[in-house]
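A reminder before we start the practical. When you read a complex entry, don't treat the lines as separate problems. The point of joint prediction is that each chain is placed relative to the others, so the output describes one connected object in space. Small molecules and nucleic acid strands, if listed, are placed in the same frame. In the example below there are three entries. Take a minute to note the order of the lines before looking further.
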Amino acid sequence: MDLWIARTPTAGIRIRLPSVTTLDSGVDSLADVTSSEDRLRRFLLGLPGVDQVGAEARAATLSTRSIKTTAKAYALDLAIRMIDLTTLEGQDTPGKVRALCAKAKRPDPADPSAPQVAAVCVYPDLVATAKHELRGSGINVASVATAFPSGRSSLAIKVQDTKDAVAAGADEVDMVIDRGAFLSGRYGLVFDEITAIREAAGDAHLKVILETGELVTYDNVRRASWLAMLAGADFIKTSTGKVSPAATLPVTLIMLEAVRDYHETTGLHIGVKPAGGIRTAKDAIKYLVTVNETAGPDWLDPELFRFGASSLLNDLLMQRTKLATGHYPGPDYFTLD
Amino acid sequence: MVWRPTLPTKDNNVRLEVRKTYKLYIGGAFPRSESGRSYVVNDAKGKFLANASQASRKDARDAVVAARKAFGGWSGKTAYNRGQVLYRIAEVMEGRHEQFTLEVAASEGLSASKARAVVDASIDRWVWYAGWADKLAQVVGSSNPVAGPYFDFSLPEATGVVAVLAPQDSSLLGLTSVIAPAIVSGNTVVAVSSYERPLPAVTLGEMMATSDLPGGVVNLLTGSASEIGPWLASHLDVNAIDLCGISDAEEARELEALAAENLKRVRRPAAEDWSESPGMSRLTQYLELKTVWHPIGV
Amino acid sequence: MSRFEYAPAPESRAIVDIKSSYGLFINGGFVEATDGKPFKTVSPSSEEVLAEVSEAGPADVDRAVRAARKAFDKVWAPMAGRDRAKYLFRIARLIQERSRELAVLESLDNGKPIRESRDVDIPLVAAHFFYYAGWADKLEYAGAGEDPQPLGVAGQIIPWNFPMLMLAWKIAPALAAGNTVVLKPAETTPLTALAFAEICQQADLPPGVVNIVTGAGRTGQALVEHPDVDKVAFTGSTEVGRAIAKAVAGSDKKVTLELGGKAANIVFEDAPIDQTIEGIVNGIFFNQGHVCCAGSRLLVQESVYDEVLARLKRRMSTLRVGDPLDKNTDIGAINSSAQLAKIRELSQIGEDEGAERWSPECELPAEGYWFPPTVFTGVSQAHRIAREEIFGPVLSVLTFRTPAEAVEKANNTPFGLSAGIWTDKGSRILWMANQLRAGVVWANTFNRFDPTSPFGGYKESGYGREGGRHGLEAYLAH
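Here is the predicted structure of the whole assembly.
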């Protein structure tokens, strides 16, 4: 671990101890795992492999679930409550963010029974605006940080980026990992960066973006998921939305398996957030089915599962209206913000 | 006046011939029949040639054990190696050409030149089958373009222990033509030779023992196919049976019905011209096809 | 609703039009049986009578064989291969067009989940006809000589587990090669075969090329023993296969048999664990375990036994048992009361022999034939549930320590139909695949089928292959 300490301003590894004491053996073994870079590497490389075809076949089978009537109504509302309503554009302005926050608070002006989203996700410089707009709503402000989306900056800047966001009032921080370091096998570096950001984020919820579209293989997704969890992530998140492919169902399946297995070992619940590319209610429901049948019903909660999305919300609202009225609505009846 | 051979005496230098004992060939060894039985083998004109061991059901049982024991090693050899071993059989036969010719001539009542032609054809048949060893998989196997992300291929494998009731007429060429296609792909064989013409089979066994063929790959029983056949047909550790030595239709039917007990692959008797090019049908008769699937992914 | 509970999502039955009674399909038309008693086919998920079906007696079978012979001599064998091909392509397309109807009908009559009949059975049926259609005018390239000839009339007997898929496996290659057929579907699942008869009519297939005779063992026996049948193709139990092999002894009939199995599904410690669990589940619970090649013997390396079992049980707890027409059903109904009785009997034997039985909590419907997904642990090779084909959703779990021991146990059976291997090590996969005495080896996958891929068994699992070029050879004289 000496190697890491040299590079890490906030030395030490933060393994959060489980609240369930019966699972002590698992935690002990994981503490051991992170005691040196070599052990961490051996642990990650020793995780069971993922067969791509089998994983994708499983995701495809889960996609065939047919969610109708009451189940659909439940799923649509749950999905809305799980949304991190997101705008991450160079052209973002306070005006844009204000509009998004209004939408977050009251997604369907025609139907006050439509639930609020979980959070609004913006760049750090717009956190204050969002925070102000959402005060008293119960909706969190999430901020991307750490030189999002590429993560190509010094650790000092990443840490400062995070601190800025938190200082501006971010409840949640969505950081990116150093994919270059990960792909070149420098797992210790990735680990240390996450622990450093974890420290900088303070009490804010930490979502670790793996950018699975750049990790490419499911084996890498599984390793990165474990790496992030071991380093203190509250959530593991698929993508920045700036790289294609962004979230896919099989990738999310692999990450759900990882949080399930981590929970088996430690008793801790880590959240999962697919982000980017989920645009339809139909897709969202496939994700919820996958959550339900992989990690289990515990994860069917905005505390443990989020959608990073923007246009998804309107489709969920349209489907919701269709279910309530029996008629197909049109997009003109839903607000574009 | 009655002719009497000149008896050897101390003074006349007449040499008394050393006669050969014709035994069974099981597991690479040459036992007599456990039953202690033998039977008289005459030449085509009815003149005494030799006593042959008369194999019993227990000899057949022992032969199946030997064949099963040899199966793993023989079928596990590379095709190239099996091809070489079969070719070596042809080489060794060539060296024993004269002996085979004499026995075929005596057994089948052929002239020396015709018998020689039969032996030539038999040797050539070993050569032909030897060459098949490392071509079978390419000719009868396949790569299967399934509609999905899988690599899928099919390969031939040996069926296992093959019982052969060898032709009754063609004592060497016929025997060769039914044994070689079975063993070239990795099967092991228990063969019951022609009853009346067993001597070339015994010599073939002796020749095999001095070739590179592992013991037990071919086991040769002399005796009655009708007596031993039902034991082999009903034996649950025999995987296939060639009934070509059975001419009686009802007997063949009974043997086929016995073979059904463990779903043996059965080659029914049919009119055969052993001098013709054999084609692939006997080769493929004792093959299983194994299809293997594996996903293709990163 | 405070939890995410899947509401019923039934596929509509309205798409199928089941007649109250069916005749036999002989010489292009439906005809009354002359010497058999009608029988009923019931929906195994509700015990509802779906239709009354004719039983073909020996005289009816004779009529069907004569129709097939005539069609063989006069029409089908002399027809140009390209035209036979076009008929088969037509049939393939008609199956695709009527796929939803056929899937619903299959699930109703057989009890299998609509997800499987819709996504597996019927698409594969169409694919089989499409594949063999293309062979009909290319027979000289099939590896059966330069001028391969059809065998004549094929008598084909199929089981109830994949009624229409087995029909396709039988009829498509037979017709492509120029044979005509008399096919007997299983007595508990005749309806899709009778729907196929209608498809033959819609395709204008010449009369007599395909004949469907419904009935049970007696009908099958008449077909096998009919002197004018040139080829017998059977899929079903080893017991019946043995009887057929005896019955055709001494005749000139060609035979292919696709019989039982007791496949080992072998899990090594380095297996891709989540896909392995899916493969185990798919291996034994696909189609209620009514699969001859089911991975019914799970061989787990001792070092990962606890983990595999825990994960398997957790996964089994998510399986949804119930209405076959519900699109979310994973495990449907057991096909018949007789089969249910057999599964119960062997499971009881498993318990009596000391194996430990476990099923997830699941509510089974009151009507119909049901059996929960079940796993037996503490099973050894000596247990009957490790040796006999249960043909139901019942998995026996055994352990091994080394690859050689896995092979030894896997091969220690009179069957030899299929096997599974789960490991991330490539060289071990190939070594295992070499050693296993089985006709189909699935490595890091299980229960995959394709018309191009030859399928069939070693040893008492039968002989001959179906699928691919090899499946065509079984219907050609060479």
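Discuss with your neighbour: The interface with chain A takes residues 1, 3-9, 115, 119, 270-275, 278-279, 318, 327-328, 424, 444-445 of chain C (CB under 8 Å). What might explain this?
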